[in-house]
Amino acid sequence: MYNIYWKKGMIKMLKLTNVSKYYHSNDVVAQGLRKINLEFKIGEFVAITGESGSGKSTLLNVISGLDTYEDGELFVNGEETSYYSIEDWENYRRQYVGFVFQNYNIIDSYSVFENVMVALQIQGYDEETRKERALELIDRVGLSTHIHHKASKLSGGQKQRAVIARALAKDCPIIVADEPTGNLDQESGEKVMGLLKEISKDKLVIVVTHNYEELSDIATRKIRLFDGEVVEDNKIKEKQVVEDIKDVPAYNMSFLDLIKISFKNLLRTPKRTVFQVIIAIFVSLVFFFSYGAYISATTQSSYTYGGGLIENPFEQRITVVKSDESIFTPSDITTLEDINLVRQVVKDDVLFDLDAYVVFYNEEYDYTDFYTSSFYPLEALNSTTLKSGRLPENANEVVVAKNDEFKVGDTIHVTKDAFYSYDGEEFDYSAADVYEFTVVGVTSVGSGGWGYRLKIYYHTDFLNSDFASKNAYINAYSYESFVSYNLKYLDTDTSIFISLLDLNINTIEIDNGLADNEISINSELLSYVAYSIPGVVVNDEVTDPNWMLTTQMQLHKTSNYDSTMYTINFTKENTDNYDSLAMNQATYDLIFIEQSRQAAVIVDDLYEGKKVVSELEELGYRVIYPSSIPSSEESILQLISKIGLGAIMLALLVVVYFISYVVLKNVQTAKKKDFLIFRSIGASKKNLYKITILELVMVMITGFLITLLLLIINKNINTFIPDYLKYFDVIGYMIIALMLILLGVMLGNRFNKRIFDRSVITSLKEE
Q1: Where does the pLDDT of residue 484 fall: very low under 50, low under 70, confident under 90, or very high at 90 and above?
Q2: SS3 assignment, position 664
Q3: Does the N terminus or the C terminus of the chain have fewer Cβ atoms within 10 A?
Q4: Domain coordinates in residue numbering, the chain
Q5: Strands across the sheet with 622-624, in order?
Q6: Cβ contacts of residue 13 below 8 Å, gap of 6+?
Q7: For residues 26 and 19, what is the distance between their CA atoms, to the nearest angstrom?
Q8: pLDDT (tens digit, 9 = 90+) per residue, 183-198?
Q9: What kind and span of H or E run contains 122?
C-alpha cells in the first residue's frame, strides 16, 4: 500500500468522504466535523469560511495531515489514508503540504534565512540549491533586509511573510493557510494575500478565513461550514488549468543533515545549551570520579604482608633482578629509567630493608638523640604531603617524616653504627661512615611504617652513591647478614674455616698505607681467634702467636648472587681497636662493595606499579612487587570490596540518570514547540528522534571534553582534588565517553516520547 501510493510521486486530487472528527475532553465527546464530503484539485484556490467553532481549522488540519479523523476516509489520488502510519503522514506533509499558520509557528531562535533553509533541508534540496532558492523567496516576500534577523525580533507581518516563504520553499503542490491575516494590519494582510494568489497558479491553495471579502477576488471556490457541516460549496470562478504537475521525490535526510540541524539548534539557544553543558560536566565528573575511585579502591590496596619476601614492602617499591642474576650495568639502569611510569631507579634495592641510625643534636635541650630509621626514595613522596619546606634537590638534603623534634633547617647525621661512634658523652661526627644531611622538608604524615622506624626520604644521587651501596650490604652489627665472609687456613693437612662473625669485627678502618690484598689485624684479636684452631693452642697456651701471619689466608665471600675466593695476607700492625680490621680502599672495595644485582624501580602508586611490572616482565626481568601480594584474608576482603563498590557505582549511575532527567526535563520541554514545528513542515519522527539524541550526545561529549580539560589542569597544578586521570587509559576514556553517550541516548528516547504522544496540531495548541 505504501509503495503504491508514493510510487505515483505527484498529487492531483484530495477527496474526503463522510469524514467526521471528534474532540475528546474529560470523557465527554464533542463533535467537530460531521459527514464532510469534499473534493479538492490542483489549481483551485479554496476559501473556507464559517463562524468560530464551526470546524474550519479542524477541516484544514485533517486535510494537511496534522490531525486525525475518526470516521470516514480521506483519499489522496484515490488512495485511502486511514491505514497511514505516523511515518506515512510525515512523508505526506514533507512532500506535499506547505503550512501558513495564524500564530506563525515559526522557530524563534532561527533567523529568517534559517527558517526557510530548514524546510528545504527537510525536503532534500542540495546545499547550493537551498541557498539560492531561500534567498529568492525571502526577496519575494520582502524580507531581504531582515534575512539574518532572528524570528523572535520580527513583527507579526514579517513573521507571517517568513512563514509563507518557508511554505513556498518546499515547492509542494498543496498550500494550506489558517487565517493567515488574522493578526496582521490591513497593509500586511493585503501583501500576504497577494503572495498566496501569485503562488496559486499551479497549486492547490486552501485558506481558512473569517473575512471572505479579502479573498473574494482571488478564490475560485467558497466553502462555508456551520456546526461541523458543509452548508455552502460554491464555485466562484474556473480553477487554473494545470497541465504539468511536478513530481515530488521522496527524500530521507542524511546523517550529516541531522548533525547540522542538531548543532544549529544548540548554537541558536546558547543559554539553554550552556545550562545543559553544565549538567553534562556535572555528570561527567560523577562518572570520572566514580570510575577513578572504583579503580583506585580495587587496585590500590597495598598489602603489608608482601608475601613475606622482603622486610619493607612500601607500595612504590618494585624489586628487579636480571634473569641470569648478572650485575646491573649503567645501560641496564638506563633501560629501567626509560620505562613509562618509572619515576626513579635505585641500583641497590636491599638498601630499603636495612636499618640506619639518625643522630640529632638537640640544641634547645643540649643532648644527642638517636633514631632507628629506614631508607625511602624521594620519588615515593608527593609534594602535597609536605607539612613544611620543599623536596630535596641534591644528595645532601632530605625530607623527614612528621616528628615534633625535627624542623626545616635542622642538621642530622646518618650512620650504620651510631653506637660504636658514641662514647656515652660525645658522638664522632667525623667518622668515615657518618653522612651529614640538611632537613629541607617535613611531611604532614608521621612514620608509622615498617617497624615504626623514622622515615627519611633521600635524593636519588645519595641512594645511588657508594656510601649507600656500602650500607646496602653491610649491617650495623655484622658483616655477614647479607654477605658471608669466611677465612680459610691454608695448610697441607688442615682446612679450617673461620667466619668474620667469630672475629667479632665491627669496624673496618681504611689505611691506604697498606698494600693491596693486605689486612692488618690486632694482636689480641689474633690470639683470641687462635684458641679456636686445633694445634695452635695446647694446654691453654698459644704455641704460635703469629700462626695467621705465617701463611696466606683465603677469604671466601658468599652473597645471594655470588661466591668468590680472595687470597689475603694478614699482618700484625699497630691497630688499636680490638674489634677492627684495617685495609686500603682498593682491598675494601674488592671485598665489601657488592655490585648491584638487585635494583629497585620506584613508581607512583600500586596502580601504576602493576603496569610497570607487566612491562618489566615483558622485557625479561624477574620481578617481585610485594605490595601487590595479599594474604588470604586480604584477598577475601578485596573481593568483597569490589562487589560492594560495584553495586554502589551502579546505584549511583541510576541516581545520576534520574537527576539528569529531572533537571533537563524543563529544557527539553522548552524545545518541544520547535520540534512540533519541525513535524508540521514534514520532519519525520525517526529524524526528530535522531536530532534530539544527537543534541544530547553533543552536549554530553562537550561536557566530557571540558571535564577532561579541567582534570588535566587540576593534575598540573596539584590541587586538593584527587588526581584520578592516572587510572585512565584509552579504554577507560572510551568507557566514560560511551557511558555519557548512552545516557544521552536514554534521555533522548524518554524525551522523544513526550513529543510524539499526540497529534501535531493537538500538541501545538497545548503549547
Answers
A1: very low
A2: helix
A3: N
A4: 2-240, 257-298+634-766, 349-452, 484-592
A5: 344-346, 599-602, 317-321, 622-624
A6: 39, 40, 41, 42, 75, 76, 77, 78
A7: 23
A8: 777 777 787 788 788 7
A9: helix 112-123
**Residue 386 main-chain phi, psi, to 5 deg:** -75, 130
Q: Which residue has the higher pLDDT, 425 or 438?
A: 438
Q: What is the DSSP string of 298-364?
A: HH----SSGGGS-S---TTEEEEE-TT-PPPPHHHHHHHHTSTT--EEES-GGGGGS-EEEEEEETT
Edge-to-edge strand ranges of the sheet holding 221-226:
97-100, 174-178, 204-208, 45-50, 221-226, 229-235
Q: What top-level class would CATH report for the domain 2-240?
A: alpha beta
**DSSP letter for each residue of 254-299:** -HHHHHHHHHHHHHH-HHHHHHHHHHHHHHHHHHHHHHHHHHHHHH
Q: Give the angle 89-91-92 at the CA atoms, nearest 5°.
A: 60
Residues 582 and 520: beta-carbon distance below 8 Å = yes
Query: What per-residue confidence (pLDDT) applies to 9?
Result: 40
- The secondary structure element, H or E, covering residue 729 is none
Vertex 270 angle, CA 269 and 276, to 5°? 95
Q: Is the torsion defined by CA of 574, 575, 581, 587 positive or negative?
A: negative
* CA distance linking residue 39 with residue 744, whole number of Å: 46
What is the pLDDT, as a whole number, of residue 530? 60
Can you tell me whether residue 619 is helix, strand or coil? coil
Residue 656, CB half-sphere, CA atoms under 13 Å: how many? 24
Residue 119: the pLDDT is 85
Q: Which residues contact 325 (CB under 8 A, 6 or more apart)?
A: 561, 597
CA distance 519 to 645: 64
User: Residue 562 is which amino acid?
Assistant: D
pLDDT at 477 over 50: no
Cα angle 144, 147, 150 (rounded to 5 degrees) comes to 145
Residue 195 has what pLDDT?
Answer: 79
Quote the pLDDT of residue 159.
Answer: 87
How many CA atoms lie within 13 Å of 253's alpha carbon, on the beta-carbon side? 29
Q: Please give the Cα distance from 507 to 484 (Å, whole number).
A: 16
How would you write 472-508 as a 3-class SS string? HHCCCCCCCCCCEEEEEEECCCCEEEEECCCCCCCEE
Question: How far, in Å, CA of 278 to CA of 272, rounded?
Answer: 10
Is the pLDDT reported for residue 561 higher than 60? no
> Shortest CA distance to 339 belongs to which of 589, 632, 737, 608?
608
Answer yes or no: is pLDDT of 638 > 70: no
CA-to-CA distance for 347 and 593, rounded, in angstroms? 13
Cα 284 to the chain's mean position, in Å?
Answer: 8
Q: Exposed, middle or buried: residue 566 (CB in 10 Å: 0-12, 13-18, 19+)?
A: middle
Q: SS3 letters for 510-524?
A: ECCCCCCCEEEECHH
| Residues 101-127 pLDDT 10s | 777 778 889 999 999 998 888 877 788
Q: Mean pLDDT across the chain, nearest whole number?
A: 77
When pLDDT is cut at 50, 70 and 90, the band that residue 485 belongs to is very low
The tens digit of pLDDT for each residue in 197-254 reads 877 777 889 999 888 888 888 899 999 998 888 999 998 887 766 655 565 566 677 8
Q: Give the separation between CA 745 and CA 536, rounded to whole angstroms.
A: 94
d(CA 371, CA 391): 22
Q: Residue with C-alpha cell 668515615?
A: 432
CB atoms inside a 10 Å sphere around CB 135: 15
pLDDT band at 27 (very low <50, low <70, confident <90, very high): very low
CB 333 within 8 Å of CB 347: yes
Q: Give which of 269, 264, 267, 272 is closest to 117, Cα–Cα.
A: 264
Confidence of residue 483 (pLDDT cuts 50, 70, 90): very low
How many angstroms separate the CA atoms of 381 and 401, rounded?
A: 10
* Residue that has been written with the C-alpha cell 531561500 in this structure: 134
pTM for this predicted structure? 0.64
pLDDT of residue 758: 57
